[in-house]
Amino acid sequence: MSQTTIPRAAVRGTASGVIFMAFFGTLWAGIGIRGMQGWEFPVLITLSLLIGVILFISAIALIKNSRQLTNEVIKKDRDRWRKRNRWFGIIFSLEGLFIAIAAFICVSTNHLNLFVPIMAFIVGAHFFPLASLFQVPIYYITGTLLCLLATIVMLTSPVKIIISDHQIMAWWVSVGFGSSLILWGTGVIVCLRGFRMLSMAQNGAGNNKVSTRL
User: Rounded to whole angstroms, how far apart are CA atoms 12 and 35?
Assistant: First the structure.
């Protein structure tokens, strides 16, 4: 199990991950809310925004409390972080490209209903290289859950259902809310990891060393 001195960049990188989970988790909740077709819309959107804001504030707290940590890193660590950030940009760009291609194909073939679960599958798949890149094993679970969710919904759930004469986009609701819960849950775990790193750094535990893995 590899260990490294905790630099400010490590904690702030973790905080960035929490912000991503908060933002995209809330976006997926928006897809679920849209699928409800106006049913209980105010309650759902308020709750979704509240969860996203709480995660975002937690990430900001991580960033604020990391100011006291050293910003000095050896050249090897600096180069490693630059390489990670470069690969993150490549992975994120490819994810966006695949989503755009999926959207084009679904619209062109008049199968727009397939787009939401396919997008969830693509998002889930992009977590696998991120797990290895940033050495965050929980991302493997996140990616697996998102891919399984998309697959199970497409294989077992009807596209639309009627409840009390109200039409609901079942795929949008299931994948949207399911994905948001997975991403928010990941955000909570990553956030706790960040605070654990911060606490160990502040207490000088193990000469300011901590595992880079969850």
Answer: 35
At residue 208, the pLDDT reads: 41
120: number of CA atoms within 13 Å, CB side?
35
| Residues 61, 54: Cα–Cα separation, whole Å | 11
The pair of structure tokens assigned to 211 is 């595992």
The torsion angles phi and psi of 208, rounded to 5 degrees, stand at 65, 35
Residue 191 identity: C
Report how far apart, in Å, the C-alpha atoms of 85 and of each of 82, 130, 206 are.
Answer: 5, 11, 27
Q: Model confidence at 212, in pLDDT bands (50, 70, 90)?
A: very low
Angle at 10 between CA 9 and CA 14, to 5 degrees: 110
Token pair for 208: 């300011």
Q: How high is the pLDDT of residue 186?
A: 97
- At a CB cut-off of 8 Å and minimum separation 6, what does 90 contact? none
